[in-house]
Amino acid sequence: MLTPEIATPAAAIEAILVPGKDYSYAFQPIVDVAARSIFSYEALVRGPDGVPAASVFERVPPDDLHRFDQQSRVAAIELASRLRLPCKLNLNFLPRSLYTSPMAVRSALEAARRFGITPDRLVLEITESEVIDDHAAFGRVVNEFRRSGLQLAIDDFGAGYAGLTMLADFLPDLLKLDMSLVRCIEGSGPRQAIVRAILQACIDLGIEVIAEGVETLEEYWWFKNAGVTLFQGYLFGRPQFEGLPALQMPIEKQPSIRKSGAG
Fold it and tell me: Residue 246 — very low, low, confident or very high, per pLDDT cuts 50/70/90?
């Protein structure tokens, strides 16, 4: 059973890895194409000199994974503040951290206030790849923190365990479509049908959708024509190690898109 977090000084918890030495962050933009602006930056764990995240996580003992998850978010917030973050900040969050780390969310809120980032500029991305035993209980706990302005996003939607049940049990503010649904969607009738259904559900529920992993103009234009305005992917900017990439808009000329076999 999940219970509200107990206030415990974050500084009292010994660091597992040292930020700035053992790991740091790269930032990738999430672009609002309607406003032609950067909606948010996602903080992505990287090893020294920007090496892939796997090099970091292989040094974290399995029993300490959720504690590292908590501590690394604080490091990401501090670095984003130093870089003068101008918009929202997306932070990855292992949902089972609420079971194992009393300060899993509160430490991020405290760090944000300490470094001059208001709670309404934080977006916690809940990875769908980790099982949540009780969606309703999890929703009750995280909703307490949403009252401060914190937003929730479901990451990699369509590739994990929860699916539509997660939307029903605790309505997130944002949903990131997994790139497995995004890739080459312009030529896949089945994917198009699935994504249209998800988009309609999100419209009905008041949830914003982010098309994640967009790499081609064809993918971009399919989603844009479907009404999506928030995008993330190499077409809009690669992650920049310890930096905030500038806005990169795709060419506003629609390519010819081949017709799919269905829908």
Answer: very high
Q: Is 105 exposed, middle or buried (0-12, 13-18, 19+ CB in 10 A)?
A: buried
The residue-averaged pLDDT of 232-240 equals: 96
Domain parsing of the chain, residue ranges? 15-241
Q: What is the 3 state secondary structure string of the chain? A: CCCCCCCCCHHHCCCCCCECCCEEEEEEEEEECCCCEEEEEEEEEECHHHCCCHHHHCCCCHHHHHHHHHHHHHHHHHHHHHCCCCCEEEEEECCCHHHHCCCCCHHHHHHHHHCCCCHHHEEEEEECCCCCCCHHHHHHHHHHHHCCCCEEEEEEECCCCCCHHHHHHCCCCEEEECHHHHCCHHHCHHHHHHHHHHHHHHHHHCCEEEEECCCCHHHHHHHHHCCCCEEECCCCCCCEECCCCCCCCCCCCCCCCCCCCCC
Whole-number pLDDT of residue 156: 87
Multiple choice CATH, 15-241, 3.40.50.2300, 3.40.630.30, 3.20.20.450, 3.40.50.880:
3.20.20.450
Residues 6+ apart with CB under 8 A from 63: none
* pTM of the predicted model as reported, rounded to 2 decimal places: 0.88
> Phi, psi (5° rounding) for residue 230?
-105, 130
